[in-house]
Write a structure and sequence with these properties.
Blueprint lengths: L8 H18 L6 H22 L4 H27 L5 H21 L25 H9 L1
Length: 146
């Protein structure tokens, strides 16, 4: 059973971008390590905030996390520009990464709009028994309180 955020196209593209960023980061050495660390942190922030936002109960909370994810995507674009200007990233690599970021930012912009409503389907979790030891804990608590 997949989580709701895993079904979002924006989440899937964000995960592909993280994979791309890790591949780029493997080639960054020495002086580029600070930009590498920043790229890895910002790229991971995108899907993490999408997942957390999609699980929020109110539209305002959901929008806030989508906006944070959007900000992280824009930060990644700026990091790529810094790396490209220092010739640590090729023009083709920069174009490839920016194509994914453009899609991510576009989708998150739409998800962050006030009139757009996105909900995690809580129904798929309602039958999940996280305490599957087949006892009735509520009755046991009541018995112990008596």
């Amino acid at each position: 059973m997949p989580f709701g955020h895993e079904q979002l196209d924006v989440y899937q593209v964000a995960i592909r971008y993280v994979s791309w960023a890790y591949a780029i980061a493997r080639g960054l050495k020495g002086i580029d390590r600070h930009a590498r660390d920043q790229l890895l942190r910002a790229s991971q922030s995108i899907p993490l905030n999408i997942a957390e936002g999609n699980g929020k109960g109110t539209n305002a909370d959901r929008r806030r996390f989508f906006e944070i994810a959007r900000g992280s995507a824009l930060e990644c674009a700026a990091i790529q520009d810094c790396l490209a200007s220092c010739q640590a990233l090729t023009a083709d690599q920069n174009t490839q990464g920016k194509a994914m970021l453009t899609r991510i930012v576009s989708m998150l912009t739409k998800l962050g709009q006030r009139n757009h409503e996105m909900r995690e389907d809580f129904g798929v979790y309602s039958d999940f028994d996280y305490d599957n030891d087949n006892d009735n804990d509520i009755d046991n608590v009541k018995d112990n309180e008596a």
